[in-house]
Design a protein that fits this description.
By secondary structure, the chain is of the alpha+beta class. It has 9 helices and 15 strands.
């Protein structure tokens, strides 16, 4: 799991007074102790403060945060001004915990509370980047961070984990992928379903992401979850076939209700508003992919399959023609040298052996790939 860290974007360089920040934290969260005067620290110029028993480091850097195009694309779905803010900011603060005593959710709660206090006490805060995955404007963070310590499922999970819809070319449907869940469970969440049921898909992703942020990596390969006792959706732990190099919790949402053990009932958590559609913004596709209606996606998949089949049979036809030409050449030389001479037989074998071997190899490879595709299709249909 990755270390959790937050970056506060500033329009000018500033070194916050952590005594003032601690006071702001205490005002915003009266039940949570926070102080910058502890263990011999008596000045607000110290880079450390104590919040809910955790030592939090705040580092001021006189340089803009490096630009991440993927982050900007993802964040623009709910924060259209994100690019302008990145162009404008000239400094940033780095907030992290030293020697954390609690789990990942506790770390996220404490950092969130501290960042809220920093924004309240530091003029010029423009926005917050969580890790390298999620970005929000400062005013939204100020409001949502007030719930940093509220119980499950109402804590501000969308400050830490974003959910993005995408068009799934493998199935012709739609999907949802998280960004930021890795810090809590070591993997992202990838849900696949029908394109016309995108909002329910996002709601399930939101509910499951919230549950996992609360409980950690409790889902094992083959575990099931659902929003009721009758809905059992199986989960696979695997590498994503859609986003190379990304370890995911993969699940396919279908109308069929199946049985399963180890059911996780998400309950009311699945009814929360998906982060991708909050603040009245319409869902946008992950990493800038273009929207594709379900029917068009299916025709694209069919066209791609026909194109690959055409290439395969064109190659086989070409090899067959080469094989026929070599055979005729061998036959001509055999007639010239005499049908029964050993030299004629050897030449014939040499002429047709190589192309014949290539043709047989391609045929076997084609059969193996077809068998693997059938096995994969069968496995997906059983999920």
């Amino acid at each position: 799991m990755t270390q959790q860290v937050a970056f506060v974007l500033l329009d000018h360089s500033a070194t916050p007074d952590l005594v003032v920040v601690a006071e702001a934290i205490c005002r915003r969260h009266p039940a949570i102790p926070a102080s910058a005067s502890w263990a011999g620290q008596t000045s607000g110029n110290s880079p450390l403060l104590l919040c809910d028993g955790e030592i939090v480091a705040v580092m001021s850097l006189i340089a803009p945060l490096p630009r991440d195009e993927g982050l900007l694309v993802r964040a623009s779905a709910s924060w259209p001004e994100v690019r302008a803010v990145f162009e404008r900011h000239s400094a940033h603060l780095v907030v992290s915990i030293l020697g954390a005593k609690g789990g990942q959710l506790r770390i996220a709660r404490v950092i969130t509370a501290v960042v809220g206090g920093l924004i309240a006490a530091t003029p010029g805060a423009l926005g917050v980047v969580w890790g390298s995955k999620v970005a929000h404007p400062a005013d939204r963070w100020m409001k949502m961070s007030e719930g940093a310590f509220v119980p499950y499922p109402d804590f501000p999970v969308s400050l830490w984990i974003s959910i993005h819809p995408f068009s799934d070319e493998l199935t012709g449907g739609g999907g949802a992928i998280t960004q930021g869940l890795t810090a809590f469970v070591g993997r992202e969440l990838e849900l696949i379903g029908a394109a016309e049921k995108l909002i329910p898909l996002l709601e399930r992703a939101q509910g499951l992401a919230t549950y996992l942020a609360q409980n950690g990596p409790v889902l094992k390969d083959g575990s099931t979850f659902g929003v009721s006792e009758t809905e059992h959706i199986a989960v696979r732990l695997c590498m994503s076939e859609r986003f190379p190099g990304m370890a995911v919790l993969h699940a396919k949402i279908t109308s069929r209700v199946g049985g399963g053990d180890n059911l996780i009932d998400l309950g009311t958590a699945a009814g929360a508003t998906p982060p991708a559609v909050m603040s009245g913004s319409a869902p946008r596709l992950f990493a800038g992919a273009s929207p594709r209606p379900d029917a068009i996606g299916k025709w694209v998949a069919v066209g791609r399959s026909l194109f690959l089949t055409l290439i395969k049979w064109s190659a086989i036809t070409l090899l067959a023609l080469i094989l026929l030409g070599e055979f005729l050449k061998a036959y001509k030389h055999a007639r010239l040298l005499g049908n029964s001479t050993p030299r004629a037989d050897l030449y014939a074998l040499e002429s047709i052996g190589v192309p014949l071997g290539i043709a047989v190899g391609l045929l076997v490879l084609s059969r193996v790939r077809s068998a693997r595709r059938r096995a994969k299709t069968t496995r997906r249909s059983n999920e």
